[in-house]
Amino acid sequence: MKKTLKHLFYVKLPHVIGSVSNPRYRVMRLFTYEGILITLINNLVGSHNNLYATRLGAGDYELGLATMLPQLVGMAVLIPGGILTDSLKSKRDMVTSALLAVACVYVLIGFVPVLGSYSLGAFLALLAISSAPMTLYNISWQAYFSDVVHPNGRNSVLAVRSSLSFLMGITITLTGGALLSSASSNAEKIRLHQMFLWVAAFLLIVQIIVLRRIPSKTVEQNSRFSLSELKKAFVDLIHNRRFLGFIGVAIFFYMTWHIDWTLYFIGQTQYLGMDEAWLSYVNIGGAIVQFLTMGIWSKINSKHGVRFAIIFGSLGLAFCPIGMIIATSLNTANAKIIFLIMNTLFHITLATTTLNILQCLLQVIPEKNKTLNISIYTTLVMLSNGVMPLVGVSMYRMLGANLKALQLVFAIIFVLRLVATGLWALRWWKLRTES
User: Fold this and answer.
1) pLDDT in tens, 344-396
2) Which of 57, 111, 285, 401 has the greatest number of beta carbons closer than 10 A?
3) Residue 57 — left, alpha, or beta (φ > 0 → left; ψ -120 to 50 → alpha)?
4) Distance between CA 405 and CA 407 in Å, rounded?
């Protein structure tokens, strides 16, 4: 086993097996540390938002709002944020400024329980506000990453960053789930959520320090961006057939992915009876297999290209609803264990979604107005992320809001994801001769 794991990581994950003195690996290490930090932050806050909202009194509708409102606010800042980032000489300035703003909002969210009957409303409002700087971080980070890392090195850097982020995510998810499960009252659980938010704010400051150590590529940019240039950027993208082909497939894929985000939580908690510990086990199972397979998918990317492996990632995602249907059909105490096993197995290919979609995007995004172009794409992704979970919940409630309705919706999602997989396969086939 030791030899197998070493072989798994040796070629594409040199950081995992020891310190590397070559200067080019310094950027890899720093991006890895930065990736670990944002993973810890997302697991401390993002993965617990539904639980926190539930303990503040949220129902199914409010849980849908907790997903939709941040997406809508994020969408509102995407285009102006992309324009502003492209006007800066160093995109790193936007990355670090956005993180500082997120840290400030997280500190405030930690105090919402003191507002009593207004706490849930304040939570939803501040959560939505936090999405604005977090969105700016995401789009500016992608542009900054593509500036700093040469295309030939992106696969390796992302593989190292993602794999070790998965590993650290496992640790914090297990710890967070255990702490929440051990709390005996709702008030104690809320206090833990508050601590998670404040720890995340501190880690965001550390993340800024790490980012400041990564070399920044300074470029000459126009300080003013006219409406005519914005129009030209849209026109250029509309005539970019490779971009349009990618965005059509990617957005449909994301729509089928996002539609069950709230339904999955409902299925796990209401029908499988999972508590915080079990929810963390599910997350950990998925993270472990993605960590263990990241090196394999990185090697497949190097050999067959990033457009090929994403087909398998989409196929694995397609079978996740089947796991929910089967587990909720079992009238046994072992249903949770069976769901955990199936969900973990279906995540074997999911590492490709983290590793490949960004690289596919960067292949088709023009260099000019890069952040703005990424913003246009991200706007569509966030629109899907904001709307589709509510669509899923609406379908579930329209069909009766019972177990039969849940299973029927998941069956529909399974078919839609198979279609998305077919579109990824068609795109790979048509572009198989291109680099």
Assistant:
1) 999 999 989 888 998 899 888 877 777 778 888 888 888 888 789 889 999 99
2) 285
3) left
4) 5
- Triad 356, 25, 143: Cα angle to 5°: 45
Nearest of 361, 24, 299, 56 to residue 190 by alpha carbon: 56
* 44 three-state secondary structure: helix
The residue to which tokens 């939709």 are assigned: 68
Average pLDDT, the chain: 84
Q: CA angle, corner 351, sides to 347 and 355, nearest 5?
A: 160
Task: Identify the pLDDT of residue 19.
Answer: 38
Does residue 134 or residue 147 have the better pLDDT?
A: 134
User: Quick one: which of 287, 301, 318, 303 has its CA closest to 352?
Assistant: 301
> Three-state DSSP class for 435?
coil
93 vs 105: CA distance, rounded Å:
19
- What is the per-residue burial (b if ≥16 Cβ within 10 Å, else e) of 209-227? ebbeebebeeeeeeeebee
Q: Please state the pTM of the whole predicted model.
A: 0.74
Rounded Cα gap, residues 77 and 100, in angstroms: 16
**Distance between CA atoms of residues 395 and 406, nearest Å:** 9
Number of neighbouring beta carbons within 10 Å of residue 69: 17
Query: In terms of pLDDT, which residue wins out, 157 or 423?
Result: 423
pLDDT digits (tens, 9 = 90+) for 292-323: 888 899 889 888 889 999 999 999 999 999 99
Nearest residue to 91 via CA among 367, 353, 385, 359: 367
**H helix intervals, 88-148:** 91-109, 119-148
DSSP letters spanning 215-240: --------S---HHHHHHHHHHHHT-
Burial class (CB in 10 A: 0-12, 13-18, 19+), 150: exposed
Ramachandran bin of 331, using left for φ above 0, alpha for ψ from -120 to 50, beta for the remaining angles: beta
